[in-house]
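2024-03-11 09:14:02 DEBUG pipeline.ingest accepted 1 chain
2024-03-11 09:14:02 DEBUG pipeline.ingest length=213
2024-03-11 09:14:03 DEBUG pipeline.predict start
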Amino acid sequence: MINPTIIWDFNGTLLNDLQACLDALNAILAEHGLPTMSLSSYRQQFGFPVVNFYHALGLCPESAFDWEALAESFHMRYLFSAHLALQPGALEAVHALQSRGVRQGVLSALEQALLEAQLEQFGLVGAMSFICGSRDYQGASKTQAARSLRVEAPVVLIGDTLHDAEVARSQGWSCILCSAGHQTVERLQTAGCPVIETLKDLPSCLPVLQRPL
């Protein structure tokens, strides 16, 4: 059996940054005199492109410069959060795949330098054959970046949002979604692909992890 190429989303999938993102967003909303969000409402509403999500909340930058200032304000709060940690089972899953000789990489909407720094911080760089982030902080679609990846079938994208399922579908890849991240399990179940509660459940739908070393 041919091992698949595993493509990981980062934020919300490998990295548990849900509370950090919510705290940073609520601080910005409060600064602008807008209602803050509960964790539940955030997970029910968050989506891509992120700029559309922000617009729906009343945050409407009028120019690229204003958007960059907003993104910088968000990330300065985010990076100093005490609520940044790997998702339960993330390190174990990455190392288990690495030990089986499975090619892995990261496809993320996070800015490239920040993505690389966080992967290094959490000890994941060495397991990744490629790291594909964004050129900016806009949190745009990952579909175009996915097209640029040189990966051979079969490919499995592991993510935490409906956008990850859309990206996988656009490339003819399989997809597994984890409901521990930025969207609710009810939303993820509409994507028509396997949904797991945590990455500890990954072996149940990824055969390569069921095979002995």
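2024-03-11 09:14:41 DEBUG pipeline.report The longest strand covers residues 104-111.
2024-03-11 09:14:41 DEBUG pipeline.predict end
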